[in-house]
Amino acid sequence: MAEKSYFIQGPVDPGFIAEQIAKHSSKQSIGGHAIFLGQVRADEHDGDKVQLIEYSAYEEMANKEIYKIREAAFSKRKLSCLHIYHSLGRVKSGEISLFVFVSSKHRKEAIAAMTELVEEIKKKVPIWKKELLQGKTERWVE
Questions:
Q1: Quick one: pLDDT at residue 45?
Q2: Is 131 domain-assigned?
Q3: What is the 3-state secondary structure (H, E, C) of the chain?
Q4: CATH number, domain with residue 65
Q5: Contact, 37 vs 96, CB < 8 A?
Q6: What pLDDT digit, counting tens, does each position of 99-114 carry?
C-alpha cells in the first residue's frame, strides 16, 4: 500500500472540490460522476446548537481502512477514478467534512459505488466526532 493520507486539516474547501472536478474534464471515457459532500449540521441539543465538530482519528489505522474500502470498490465495480477526503480538526456548521468523488463510464455504476463507499466509511473507519455547542459545552457523537 502506498503511503497516502485521505485526511485534510479543517474543512474541505469548495475551491479544492471544483479543482478536482475540473481535472477530470480531460478524461473523455468517463460518462458519469457521483459526488457526496458531507456537511456539518447545526443540530440542536437541549436548546443549544452545534457550532462545530472536531474530528479526530487514529490516522494510520483509518488510512489503511479507507485504502481497503477504496480497493474493494475498484474490484467490485468498473470505476475510472475514486477520491476520498475527510476532515480532521475543527469544521464549523455549514462547512464540508467529507468529499467522496467517484467516476465511471456509466452514471449508475458511479452512483451505486458512491453510496456504498459513504456507508462503508461511516461504518468502518475509526473517526471520532466531538460537537462543540454554542453554549460552549462539548458532546461526543456515537
A1: 85
A2: yes
A3: CCCCCCEEECCECHHHHHHHHHHHHHCCCCCEEEEEEEECCCCEECCEEEEEEEEEECHHHHHHHHHHHHHHHHHHCCEEEEEEEEEEEEEECCCEEEEEEEEECCHHHHHHHHHHHHHHHHHHCCEEEEEEECCCCEEEEC
A4: 3.90.1170.40
A5: yes
A6: 999 999 999 999 999 9
How is residue 106 written as a grid cell? 456509466
Nearest to 89 by CA among 63, 127, 124, 120: 127
**What is the count of structural domains for the chain?**
1
Residue-wise pLDDT for 32-45, tens only, equals: 999 999 999 999 98
- Which residue range is the domain that position 47 belongs to? 10-141
The torsion angles phi and psi of 33, rounded to 5 degrees, stand at: -120, 145
Whole-number Å distance between alpha carbons of 1 and 23: 24
Predicted structure pTM score: 0.92
- What burial class does residue 116 get, using C-beta atoms within 10 Å of its C-beta: 0-12 exposed, 13-18 middle, 19+ buried? middle
